[in-house]
Amino acid sequence: MWRVPSRFGEAKVAKKRGHKKRILNFFVLTGVYVVFFMYFCTMKHLFYIALFCLLLPGCGERKPDASSAEARPSPVSIATAISRQSRLYTSEYVVHKIVTHSDLKRLHGSLLGFEFNQTLPVGDRKILIPLDVTLQAYVDFAQIGEGDIETAEGENGPVLHVTLPDPRIVVVSSKVDNMGVRTHVGLLRSSFKDAELTDFVRQGVASVVQAAPQMGIIESARQNAASVLVPLLAGMGYAEENIVITFRKDFGERDLWNLYDEERSSVKLRQ
Fold first, then answer.
1. SS3 for the chain, per residue?
2. Are 110 and 117 in contact (CB under 8 A)?
3. pLDDT tens string for the chain (271 positions)?
């Protein structure tokens, strides 16, 4: 038997199909809005990112100057940092010295109105002492003060000028080669006493100290002290080519004994 649908059934089916179409349209429109919103936000973010990239180089150029200026310490801070290095021994020399001494016995007087001064053939004394003297030179950074630091602006950046104290010389040790000592004593003379040998050694050490400038130990101490300080000062914001380290004028013979640190030496040369 065939069943003929009524008009009520057709209307119900049409109503159901319209409801599904509205739901489909809702999802389609929602998807369009989401895509449009995401596209708009992405473009907006790209705009801000591009603007940030354009401004970043200019900011990068200004910051180093400000930060480097703040990083450079004051003369007081520089002097304090250098003085913390305390006493820096920068050079050491070992000098071999042959000390010789000759002592002749002479007979002089007058006889029957005649003056005479004659060397006795068996009255001479001679000695030869091999001696090794170890010298060290140091710079006492603890003596540096604010007045020894000068700063200025140069063509290639800030310039730092540091004046260091004069190097000091110390006799670390003096060793006599007892096996190499040679003596000659005449029949009419007595042997050398210990006090005389000590005095001969002291004279030999003094001659070594006097010859220190010719050995280059002072100049070597200057160069080594500068090579130690330059990296330290460069770490404070100064270019190495703008760091100037100076010492006092060249030393004369009188100045030399002012550089000798007898208090820290093993041999006392000043009596």
1. CCCCCCHHHHHHHHHHHHHHHHHHHHHHHHHHHHHHHHHHHHHHHHHHHHHHHHHHHHHHHHHHHHHHHHHCCCHHHHHHHHHCCCEEEEEEEEEEEEEEEEEEEEEEEEECCEEEEEEEEEEEEEEEEEEEEEEEEEEEHHHCCHHHEEEEEECCEEEEEEECCCCEEEEEEEEECHHHCEEEECCCCCCCCHHHHHHHHHHHHHHHHHCHHHHCHHHHHHHHHHHHHHHHHHCCCCCHHHEEEECCCCCCHHHHHHHECCCCCCCCCCC
2. no
3. 333 344 434 444 444 555 556 666 666 566 555 545 455 555 545 444 554 444 455 444 444 444 455 567 888 999 999 988 888 898 899 999 999 988 766 555 665 566 646 665 666 889 999 999 999 999 999 999 889 999 998 888 899 999 998 899 999 999 999 999 999 887 777 888 999 999 999 999 999 998 888 888 988 999 999 999 999 999 888 999 999 999 876 666 667 777 888 888 888 886 5
Alpha carbon of 54 to those of 40, 163, 248: distances in Å?
A: 21, 47, 54
Q: Which of 82, 80, 105 is nearest to 189 (CA)?
A: 105
Name the nearest CA neighbour of 140 among 111, 161, 169, 115.
Answer: 169
pTM comes to 0.63
Cα–Cα–Cα angle for 221, 223, 226, rounded to 5 degrees: 105
